[in-house]
Amino acid sequence: MLVLAIETSCDETSVALVRDGSRILSNVVSSQVDIHERFGGVVPELASRKHLENIGIVIDEALHKAQLSLNDVEGICVTRGPGLIGALLVGLSTAKALAFALRVPWVGLHHMEGHILAVKLERELEFPFLALAVSGAHTHLYRVDGYGCYQTLGRTLDDAAGEAYDKVGKLLGLGYPAGAAIDRLAAEGDSGRWTFPRALLQKDNLDFSFSGLKTAVWSQVSKVSPDAEEVRHIAAGFQEAVVDVLTRKTLKAVAGSGLRRVVVAGGVACNRGLRERFNMLAERHDFDVYFPSPGLCADNAAMLAVAGNFYLENGCSESLSLNAVAQWILDSVKFSFD
Question: The pTM is what?
């Protein structure tokens, strides 16, 4: 099946054309970073307006790169939620209009389902497996037993890991988004110079918390007014705390579940320090760890086509009355099959 996928959950307008849920023919991403950078974060109203301006252009570019036309499309999938409601509505409305005009089936998908399954665009991966989903708005541990079969094992109780990166980056004067800058500086710094808290590690659960870590960095920075060299050490100490929590919680999930396959997905999965630690721990503790390539870690439409193709091929199709949802628990994703 040839699927057209649309992603507009936050500040990237993305459209992809994917054959059989695995072969990417095009995957166009239009970023809004330059617009939101001066505000230190995404402004929802501006994001929605920019999606509205870009969506038609991005669809045309995706079709051009794939050397296809809309008449070739056999099904459509789109992010239904969670995300910024105005941004989601642009993508969802576009998907509905195209499905109606082309008379093809369509499905609305969970954003994190796309991230978790993006790795299947690049390699064969059998169910079940564990998934650590880490992005600007999400830090969750899932057990994944199949398409539409997800169980939340742990989640952040406050800030997500990516959100903490951006807020700490702002404190250190690194601009927005700050994840890549902190990762780069951390490689040059001494993580032992600054020790920051690791929340909930002693708790008998798999939940996360990063608000206290962010506050601890703010408390220290406000006292010392760090120079460029010290910023590198602070970045290293901060990243060490985040990586330590993410990997140790995941190791606990591996031990408790007995599963030996782990997927790390989402924007923070691009982080060099996190990848290196997971690869080292996987070898030491005898499990397999999988990361999507960097281009598939960030928000993109192609990642949606893995689940989208499966649901569409199995007879799923949404009603045109389906609405976007700003909040949506992945465990509740359910589709009816013909």
Answer: 0.93
Torsion, Cα of 269, 275, 281, 286 (10° steps): 80
| Per-residue buried b or exposed e for 286-295, using 16+ beta carbons within 10 Å of the residue's own CB | ebebbbbeee
CATH superfamily assigned to domain 128-291: ATPase, nucleotide binding domain (3.30.420.40)
Which string of b and e fits 162-185 if b means at least 16 CB within 10 Å? bbbbbbbbbbbebebbbbbbbbeb
Report CA 4 to chain centroid distance, whole Å: 19
Q: How far apart are CA 100 and CA 103, in angstroms?
A: 5
- pLDDT tens profile 181-211: 999 999 999 998 999 999 999 888 999 999 9
Sketch the domain layout of the chain as residue ranges. 2-116+297-332, 128-291
CA 273-331-12 angle, to 5 degrees, is 55
The dihedral built from the CA positions of residue 322, 93, 316 and 148, taken in this order, carries a sign that is: negative
Same topology, domains 2-116+297-332 and 128-291? Answer is yes
Q: Token digits for 245?
A: 């929590």
